[in-house]
Known about the structure:
single chain, globular, two-stranded parallel sheet, alpha/beta
Amino acid sequence: MGNGRIAVVTGAGSGLGREISRALLGAGYRVALAGRRADALAETADGAADALPVPTDVADPDSVAALFETVRDRWGRLDLLVNNAGVSVGGTVDELSFADWKRAVDTNLTGMFLCAQQAVRLMKAQDPRGGRIINNGSISAHAPRPASVAYTATKHAVTGLTKSISLDGRAWNVACGQIDIGNAATEMTLRMADGIPQADGSIKAEPTFDARHVADAVLYMAGLPLDANVQFLTVTATAMPYIGRG
């Protein structure tokens, strides 16, 4: 038997989004899978009856509005938004192109804002009122890597977004928390085994950890009653060079 709760996961077509989506489906959620590629969303769904693939561009206000309208029409409410979609854009402040800066801001920050905006509107209007939003931050919300100005700036901004949603949603029983992840093993972190730039200019391999532990953490955060909230949770590979940076 499912738990009857309704979730939206953005960036659900790969990586952590896929892992989180499948964990929620396994826990009995009905899950709208949002992402740009229909084929990747179908692969995440893998035929699950409670999965609803909805091709979505989170940087497009009309596309995001259509996503949440689809959820409302299909299931009538929303209990959880996992704001996971993001892009990794490398480059130093003097070399990064405006196009790459804008792509990072549009997806990593504006996309999260647009999805949160639609989610809160739905959560305020439904009966019973309320719900939960979990934003995917990053270790880069705390400390940058070299040549990561766009990614780091947007992830720092996600922290401000999380705090503001927590405050603005308080009167409507909308809880918001953030999970900051360091070196979960996904397609994005494969290159870490070959070595990546460090702050001292060296190139070193970095350890990773199984992405299912991120999904387990999200399940814990999502499973709390709405009168309790994990405001910030950090999960990293134990030996990654995070504590001690600088």
